[in-house]
Protein backbone atom coordinates (compact mmCIF):
# COMPACT_ATOMS: atom_id res chain seq x y z
CA UNK A 1 0.00 0.00 0.00
CA UNK A 2 1.20 3.57 -0.66
CA UNK A 3 2.43 5.36 2.41
CA UNK A 4 2.94 8.97 3.46
CA UNK A 5 4.37 10.44 6.66
CA UNK A 6 3.78 13.50 8.76
CA UNK A 7 6.67 15.46 10.24
CA UNK A 8 4.74 17.28 12.94
CA UNK A 9 7.52 19.12 14.80
CA UNK A 10 10.90 20.77 14.43
CA UNK A 11 12.95 17.91 15.88
CA UNK A 12 13.92 16.19 12.63
CA UNK A 13 17.63 16.25 13.51
CA UNK A 14 16.90 14.16 16.62
CA UNK A 15 15.46 11.25 14.66
CA UNK A 16 17.03 11.75 11.23
CA UNK A 17 19.27 8.66 11.56
CA UNK A 18 16.33 6.27 11.39
CA UNK A 19 13.92 8.53 9.51
CA UNK A 20 16.07 9.24 6.44
CA UNK A 21 16.04 5.61 5.20
CA UNK A 22 12.24 5.67 5.32
CA UNK A 23 11.94 8.58 2.89
CA UNK A 24 12.56 6.38 -0.16
CA UNK A 25 9.65 4.15 0.87
CA UNK A 26 7.11 6.99 1.00
CA UNK A 27 4.92 8.54 -1.67
CA UNK A 28 5.20 11.86 0.11
CA UNK A 29 5.74 13.80 3.30
CA UNK A 30 3.46 16.38 4.90
CA UNK A 31 4.58 19.14 7.28
CA UNK A 32 2.28 21.61 9.05
CA UNK A 33 4.74 24.52 8.72
CA UNK A 34 7.38 25.55 6.20
CA UNK A 35 9.95 25.87 8.99
CA UNK A 36 9.49 22.22 9.98
CA UNK A 37 10.02 21.22 6.34
CA UNK A 38 13.41 22.97 6.07
CA UNK A 39 15.54 19.83 6.73
CA UNK A 40 13.49 17.84 4.21
CA UNK A 41 13.84 20.55 1.58
CA UNK A 42 17.59 20.51 2.12
CA UNK A 43 17.53 16.73 1.56
CA UNK A 44 15.77 17.25 -1.76
CA UNK A 45 12.51 15.55 -0.82
CA UNK A 46 10.25 16.18 -3.82
CA UNK A 47 6.74 15.12 -2.77
CA UNK A 48 6.68 17.50 0.18
CA UNK A 49 3.44 19.23 1.05
CA UNK A 50 2.95 22.03 3.57
CA UNK A 51 -0.33 20.95 5.13
CA UNK A 52 -1.28 23.19 8.08
CA UNK A 53 -2.60 21.77 11.34
CA UNK A 54 -6.08 20.36 10.63
CA UNK A 55 -8.98 21.92 12.49
CA UNK A 56 -12.62 20.85 12.47
CA UNK A 57 -14.75 23.94 13.16
CA UNK A 58 -17.59 23.40 15.57
CA UNK A 59 -20.29 25.68 16.84
CA UNK A 60 -18.82 27.80 19.57
CA UNK A 61 -19.88 26.79 23.08
CA UNK A 62 -22.72 28.74 24.62
CA UNK A 63 -20.28 30.60 26.84
CA UNK A 64 -19.94 34.36 27.16
CA UNK A 65 -16.63 36.17 26.94
CA UNK A 66 -15.31 37.12 30.37
CA UNK A 67 -16.44 40.60 31.38
CA UNK A 68 -12.99 41.25 32.84
CA UNK A 69 -9.69 40.56 31.05
CA UNK A 70 -8.78 36.87 31.16
CA UNK A 71 -5.47 35.42 29.99
CA UNK A 72 -5.06 31.65 29.65
CA UNK A 73 -2.07 29.36 29.14
CA UNK A 74 -3.24 26.29 27.13
CA UNK A 75 0.13 24.82 26.10
CA UNK A 76 2.41 22.03 27.27
CA UNK A 77 4.55 22.85 30.27
CA UNK A 78 8.02 22.49 28.77
CA UNK A 79 10.90 24.83 28.11
CA UNK A 80 10.42 25.24 24.37
CA UNK A 81 7.05 26.91 25.02
CA UNK A 82 8.69 29.57 27.18
CA UNK A 83 6.58 28.71 30.19
CA UNK A 84 9.31 29.63 32.70
CA UNK A 85 9.40 33.22 31.53
CA UNK A 86 5.64 33.38 31.30
CA UNK A 87 5.17 32.32 34.93
CA UNK A 88 7.77 34.91 35.95
CA UNK A 89 5.83 37.70 34.24
CA UNK A 90 2.44 36.95 35.81
CA UNK A 91 2.92 39.19 38.90
CA UNK A 92 3.64 42.13 36.58
CA UNK A 93 0.43 41.86 34.57
CA UNK A 94 -2.15 44.63 34.95
CA UNK A 95 -4.02 44.08 38.24
CA UNK A 96 -7.41 43.58 36.55
CA UNK A 97 -6.17 40.65 34.41
CA UNK A 98 -7.14 37.19 35.64
CA UNK A 99 -4.96 34.21 34.70
CA UNK A 100 -5.96 30.57 34.18
CA UNK A 101 -3.36 27.86 33.56
CA UNK A 102 -4.20 24.67 31.66
CA UNK A 103 -2.37 21.57 30.39
CA UNK A 104 0.65 20.07 32.14
CA UNK A 105 4.21 18.86 31.68
CA UNK A 106 7.62 18.48 33.25
CA UNK A 107 8.00 22.14 34.16
CA UNK A 108 4.91 22.04 36.38
CA UNK A 109 6.48 19.32 38.50
CA UNK A 110 9.81 21.16 38.60
CA UNK A 111 8.53 24.62 39.47
CA UNK A 112 5.46 23.95 41.65
CA UNK A 113 7.45 24.59 44.86
CA UNK A 114 9.73 27.30 43.47
CA UNK A 115 9.41 30.97 44.51
CA UNK A 116 8.34 31.94 40.96
CA UNK A 117 5.37 29.56 41.22
CA UNK A 118 4.35 30.75 44.66
CA UNK A 119 4.50 34.37 43.50
CA UNK A 120 2.39 33.70 40.40
CA UNK A 121 -0.19 31.10 41.47
CA UNK A 122 -2.99 31.49 43.99
CA UNK A 123 -4.82 28.16 43.62
CA UNK A 124 -3.56 24.83 42.28
CA UNK A 125 -6.63 22.66 41.65
CA UNK A 126 -4.46 19.73 40.58
CA UNK A 127 -2.13 19.05 43.50
CA UNK A 128 -2.72 21.90 45.92
CA UNK A 129 0.54 23.81 45.53
CA UNK A 130 -1.09 27.12 46.37
CA UNK A 131 0.78 30.40 46.56
CA UNK A 132 0.22 34.10 47.00
CA UNK A 133 -0.26 35.10 43.36
CA UNK A 134 -3.35 35.45 41.18
CA UNK A 135 -3.24 32.56 38.66
CA UNK A 136 -5.45 29.49 38.94
CA UNK A 137 -3.93 26.19 37.79
CA UNK A 138 -6.34 23.59 36.38
CA UNK A 139 -3.91 21.26 34.60
CA UNK A 140 -5.33 18.88 32.01
CA UNK A 141 -9.06 19.14 31.43
CA UNK A 142 -11.46 17.62 28.92
CA UNK A 143 -11.42 19.17 25.44
CA UNK A 144 -14.89 20.75 25.74
CA UNK A 145 -13.63 22.63 28.80
CA UNK A 146 -10.68 24.01 26.85
CA UNK A 147 -13.05 25.23 24.13
CA UNK A 148 -15.03 27.04 26.82
CA UNK A 149 -11.82 28.55 28.21
CA UNK A 150 -10.93 29.93 24.76
CA UNK A 151 -14.44 31.31 24.48
CA UNK A 152 -14.08 33.16 27.80
CA UNK A 153 -10.48 34.29 27.28
CA UNK A 154 -9.29 37.65 25.99
CA UNK A 155 -5.70 36.46 25.53
CA UNK A 156 -3.70 33.24 25.21
CA UNK A 157 0.09 32.91 25.45
CA UNK A 158 2.62 30.69 23.67
CA UNK A 159 6.29 31.68 23.55
CA UNK A 160 7.50 28.82 21.35
CA UNK A 161 10.70 29.92 19.65
CA UNK A 162 11.93 32.03 22.55
CA UNK A 163 13.90 29.32 24.37
CA UNK A 164 15.46 27.29 21.55
CA UNK A 165 18.33 27.56 19.08
CA UNK A 166 16.81 25.06 16.64
CA UNK A 167 16.47 26.82 13.30
CA UNK A 168 13.23 24.96 12.62
CA UNK A 169 11.69 26.95 15.47
CA UNK A 170 13.59 30.23 15.21
CA UNK A 171 12.33 30.52 11.62
CA UNK A 172 8.80 30.72 12.93
CA UNK A 173 6.13 28.37 14.21
CA UNK A 174 2.78 28.14 15.94
CA UNK A 175 0.59 25.33 17.24
CA UNK A 176 -2.95 23.97 17.29
CA UNK A 177 -3.53 26.01 20.43
CA UNK A 178 -3.24 29.20 18.37
CA UNK A 179 -5.59 27.89 15.68
CA UNK A 180 -8.17 27.09 18.35
CA UNK A 181 -7.71 30.44 20.10
CA UNK A 182 -8.18 32.34 16.84
CA UNK A 183 -11.33 30.39 16.02
CA UNK A 184 -12.92 31.00 19.42
CA UNK A 185 -12.10 34.71 19.47
CA UNK A 186 -9.17 34.94 21.89
CA UNK A 187 -6.06 36.92 20.93
CA UNK A 188 -2.78 34.95 20.98
CA UNK A 189 0.32 36.54 22.46
CA UNK A 190 3.20 34.86 20.62
CA UNK A 191 6.96 35.01 20.35
CA UNK A 192 8.14 37.32 17.57
CA UNK A 193 9.53 34.37 15.59
CA UNK A 194 5.89 33.74 14.61
CA UNK A 195 6.27 36.73 12.29
CA UNK A 196 8.18 34.35 10.01
CA UNK A 197 5.04 32.29 9.40
CA UNK A 198 2.09 33.12 7.15
CA UNK A 199 -0.22 33.88 10.06
CA UNK A 200 -1.48 37.44 9.43
CA UNK A 201 0.38 39.90 11.63
CA UNK A 202 -2.79 41.83 12.49
CA UNK A 203 -4.56 38.99 14.33
CA UNK A 204 -2.11 38.39 17.19
CA UNK A 205 0.38 40.16 19.45
CA UNK A 206 4.11 39.51 18.99
CA UNK A 207 6.68 39.91 21.78
CA UNK A 208 10.44 39.37 21.90
CA UNK A 209 10.35 37.89 25.38
CA UNK A 210 8.03 37.20 28.30
CA UNK A 211 9.21 40.44 29.91
CA UNK A 212 7.26 42.35 27.25
CA UNK A 213 3.94 40.61 27.94
CA UNK A 214 2.65 42.87 30.75
CA UNK A 215 3.17 46.02 28.70
CA UNK A 216 1.75 44.38 25.55
CA UNK A 217 -1.38 43.44 27.49
CA UNK A 218 -1.70 46.99 28.85
CA UNK A 219 -1.49 48.44 25.34
CA UNK A 220 -4.05 45.97 24.03
CA UNK A 221 -6.47 46.73 26.85
CA UNK A 222 -6.15 50.43 26.07
CA UNK A 223 -6.65 50.00 22.32
CA UNK A 224 -9.27 47.25 22.49
CA UNK A 225 -7.27 45.12 20.06
CA UNK A 226 -7.93 41.72 21.62
CA UNK A 227 -11.73 41.91 21.39
CA UNK A 228 -11.85 43.99 18.21
CA UNK A 229 -14.57 42.37 16.04
CA UNK A 230 -12.50 43.09 12.92
CA UNK A 231 -9.51 41.21 14.34
CA UNK A 232 -11.72 38.33 15.43
CA UNK A 233 -13.32 38.10 11.98
CA UNK A 234 -9.94 38.09 10.23
CA UNK A 235 -8.73 35.42 12.65
CA UNK A 236 -11.64 33.11 11.86
CA UNK A 237 -11.20 33.70 8.15
CA UNK A 238 -7.55 32.69 8.44
CA UNK A 239 -8.51 29.45 10.18
CA UNK A 240 -11.10 28.68 7.50
CA UNK A 241 -8.64 29.48 4.72
CA UNK A 242 -5.63 27.57 6.05
CA UNK A 243 -6.67 24.93 8.56
CA UNK A 244 -9.90 23.21 7.56
CA UNK A 245 -9.58 19.46 8.08
CA UNK A 246 -11.41 18.76 4.81
CA UNK A 247 -8.66 20.54 2.85
CA UNK A 248 -6.00 18.52 4.63
CA UNK A 249 -7.80 15.35 3.55
CA UNK A 250 -7.66 16.45 -0.07
CA UNK A 251 -3.93 17.07 0.20
CA UNK A 252 -3.44 13.59 1.59
CA UNK A 253 -5.49 12.06 -1.21
CA UNK A 254 -3.44 13.98 -3.75
CA UNK A 255 -0.27 12.27 -2.52
CA UNK A 256 -1.75 8.79 -2.37
CA UNK A 257 -3.52 8.72 -5.73
* Rg estimate, integer Å: 19 Å
Q: What distance separates the N and C termini?
A: 11 Å
How does the helix and strand content classify structurally? alpha/beta
How many helices does DSSP assign? 11
Order of helices and strands: EHEHEEHEHHEEHEHHEEHHH
Overall pLDDT: 94
Question: How much beta, percentage-wise?
Answer: 15-25%
**Fraction of helical residues:** 25-40%
Largest sheet: 7 strands, parallel
Strand order of the largest sheet: 6-7-5-4-8-9-10
Quantity of strands, as a count: 10
3D shape: globular
| Poorly predicted runs | none
Oligomer category: single chain
Write up what this structure looks like.
- Helix content is 39%, strand content 16%.
- The strands form two sheets. It has a seven-stranded parallel beta sheet, with helices on both faces.
- β4, α3 and β5 form a beta-alpha-beta unit.
- The chain contains eleven helices and ten strands.
- By secondary structure, the protein is an alpha/beta fold.
Fill in the keyword field for this structure.
seven-stranded parallel β-sheet, 257 residues, 10 strands, globular, 11 helices, alpha/beta
Task: Give the gist of this structure.
The chain is α/β, with parallel strands linked by helices. Helix content is 39%, strand content 16%.
Set down the secondary structure blueprint:
Layout: E1 4-6, H1 12-23, E2 28-31, H2 34-42, E3 48-50, E4 70-73, H3 83-89, E5 98-102, H4 106-111, H5 115-120, E6 121-124, E7 135-139, H6 143-152, E8 155-158, H7 167-170, H8 176-184, E9 187-191, E10 205-207, H9 213-223, H10 229-243, H11 245-256
Parallel strand pairs: 1-2, 2-3, 4-5, 4-8, 5-7, 6-7, 8-9, 9-10
Helix pairs in contact: 8-10
Amino acid sequence: LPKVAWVMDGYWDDYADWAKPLLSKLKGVLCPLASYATPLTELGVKNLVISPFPFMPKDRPDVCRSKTPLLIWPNQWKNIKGVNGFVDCIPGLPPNVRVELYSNGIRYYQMRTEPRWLAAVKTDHFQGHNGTGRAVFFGNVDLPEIAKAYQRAWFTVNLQGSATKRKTYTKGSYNNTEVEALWYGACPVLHSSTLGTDMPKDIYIAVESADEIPDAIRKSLKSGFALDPVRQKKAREFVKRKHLAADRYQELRGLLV
